[in-house]
Design brief:
Structural class: mainly alpha
Radius of gyration: 27 Å
Shape: flat
Order of helices and strands: HHHHHEEE
Length: 118
């Protein structure tokens, strides 16, 4: 076989495999997939474990998670805010770091939650 023939055959083979993978991926991503290859179905999505009996607010669980962008560097305003004893600056700092958990690798098992040692 010549080099051109080998190249064309390999392109055809790879293209066929890519197409086959895309078809299989589409089948697996269907919500109502059936068979042994199905990852989950409509029954799994609608299952709620009857959490209302345990006073769990199902409306809050169905809400989309809040996504916030965290600038993981010391911003310019923070340099001055850390040195001031001002409740407004303290509120700005707490707003930025609210809900974050810091793990200190030097002290094992100690977690810091928004500046509070837990």
């Amino acid at each position: 076989m010549s080099g051109e023939s080998t190249e064309k055959r390999s392109i055809l083979y790879v293209s066929a495999k890519i197409q086959q993978s895309r078809i299989m991926c589409d089948q697996l991503e269907k919500l109502d997939a059936t068979g042994n290859n199905a990852m989950f179905g409509d029954d799994d999505i609608n299952f709620d474990m009857q959490l209302e009996r345990f006073d769990v607010d199902m409306g809050a669980l169905k809400e989309p998670a809040v996504e916030r962008i965290f600038p993981a560097w010391v911003q310019d305003w923070e340099e001055e805010a850390r040195k001031k004893n001002d409740c407004v600056e303290e509120a700005r700092l707490l707003t930025k770091y609210k809900g974050l958990v810091f793990n200190d690798p030097d002290s094992q098992g100690v977690h810091f939650l928004s500046g509070i040692k837990t």
